[in-house]
């Protein structure tokens, strides 16, 4: 843990500068009070390209961890545990991209070791920092939830990744749902149209989570849909709220009181729905996420998405995968 004064710059590094990691480097390079000390990647040419773009250095992993207060770990999931443990041993506060780990026992070990050494772990569930979701939290603050539906769909990836559609896409919505619902998950069911295949959870999966407070949450995740969709709908006792992640848009639907009205001498029943579009202060979620991480490191506070929460998401994701494979 590296608590620093506002006047003292925080030194940062990025481990893994591929498709997502390059953006971590970009954002750190622009955050006030942050010094991007260096980057590391197994692909030295790639690391050199990103370092040149952001006027920083390519460094060996051990050298980088020796010089920074904090680091983003943006490597394939199977390497999260190994790299995160190295950072913890160096006393470096870390943001680990989602999912936290691929093995629950490794996640528990990371939490134990980080706690012993006073190291902060934040998990990169970026949708928590989407302004539309932050607006949603305010809208439902005093509402009684009934259900949540999420749809995270897109075409096949143009690159091979080891994460399933659940651990690649659905985990975003699992985390958001956990942040919205007060109860605990008491049951999980899931299915896939490809259930008979060994790779059933790779392409398309639906899951339903039942919470102890009565809320039902339904998720759909797909990497085989030819239209990119990122949507969430919340139903409460008094309204329906629709969220579009991509353009950070929120709509609130309310029914007005029904009434009987006269129309040309006839009495008719009328019920209207009003639509409200609250203001959303659109910002880049990654900027919000990394600024929050830097602020947490400065103050020594609790991250918005802790390792404990990240591990809970992993546990639920793996339970969903097991449910699919058992059908």
| Name of the CATH architecture of the largest domain | 2-Layer Sandwich
Total of DSSP H or I helical runs spanning 4+ residues: 9
Strand content: 25-35%
Strand order of the largest sheet: 8-9-10-7-11-12-13-16
Name the poorly predicted regions.
Answer: none
CATH topology of the largest domain: Dihydrodipicolinate Reductase, domain 2
Distance between the termini: 45 Å
Order of helices and strands: EHEHEHEHEHEHEHEEEEEEEEEHH
Number of strands: 16
Dominant shape = globular
CATH homologous superfamily classification of the largest domain: Dihydrodipicolinate Reductase, domain 2
Mean pLDDT: 93
Question: How many structural domains in the coordinates?
Answer: 2
Main beta sheet:
8 strands, mixed
The share of residues in helices is 25-40%
The CATH class of the largest domain, by name, is: Alpha Beta
Q: Any idea what the radius of gyration is?
A: 22 Å
Which structural class do you get from the secondary structure elements?
A: alpha/beta
Domain Gfo/Idh/MocA-like oxidoreductase N-terminal: 12-125
Domain GFO/IDH/MocA-like oxidoreductase: 163-235
GO molecular function, one term: nucleotide binding
Organism: uncultured haloarchaeon
């Amino acid at each position: 843990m590296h608590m620093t004064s506002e006047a003292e710059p925080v030194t940062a590094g990025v481990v893994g500068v591929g498709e997502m990691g390059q953006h971590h480097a970009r954002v750190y390079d622009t955050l006030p009070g942050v010094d991007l000390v260096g980057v590391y990647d197994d692909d030295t040419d790639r690391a050199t390209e990103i370092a040149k773009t952001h006027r920083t250095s390519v460094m060996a992993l051990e050298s980088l961890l020796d010089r920074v207060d904090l680091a983003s770990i943006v490597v394939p999931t199977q390497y999260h545990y190994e790299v995160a443990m190295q950072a913890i041993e160096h006393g470096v506060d870390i943001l680990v991209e989602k999912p936290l780990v691929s093995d629950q026992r490794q996640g528990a070990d990371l939490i134990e070791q980080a706690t012993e050494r006073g190291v902060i772990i934040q998990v990169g569930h970026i949708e928590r920092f989407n302004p539309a979701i932050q607006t949603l939290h305010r809208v439902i603050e005093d509402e009684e939830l009934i259900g949540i539906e999420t749809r995270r769909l897109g075409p096949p990836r143009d690159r091979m990744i080891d994460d399933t559609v659940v651990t690649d896409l659905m985990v975003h919505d699992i985390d958001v749902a956990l942040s919205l619902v007060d109860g605990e998950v008491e049951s999980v069911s899931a299915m896939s149209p490809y259930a008979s295949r060994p790779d059933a959870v790779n392409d398309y999966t639906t899951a339903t989570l039942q919470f102890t407070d009565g809320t039902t949450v339904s998720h759909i995740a797909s990497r085989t849909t030819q239209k990119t969709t990122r949507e969430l709908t919340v139903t409460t006792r008094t309204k329906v709220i629709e969220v579009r992640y991509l353009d950070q848009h929120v709509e609130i639907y309310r029914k007005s009181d029904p009434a009987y009205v006269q129309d040309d001498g006839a009495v008719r029943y009328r019920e209207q729905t009003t639509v409200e579009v609250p203001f959303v202060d659109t910002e880049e979620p990654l900027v919000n996420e990394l600024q929050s991480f830097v602020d947490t490191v400065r103050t020594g506070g609790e991250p918005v998405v802790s390792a404990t929460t990240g591990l809970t998401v992993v546990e639920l994701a793996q339970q969903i995968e097991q449910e699919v494979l058992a059908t």
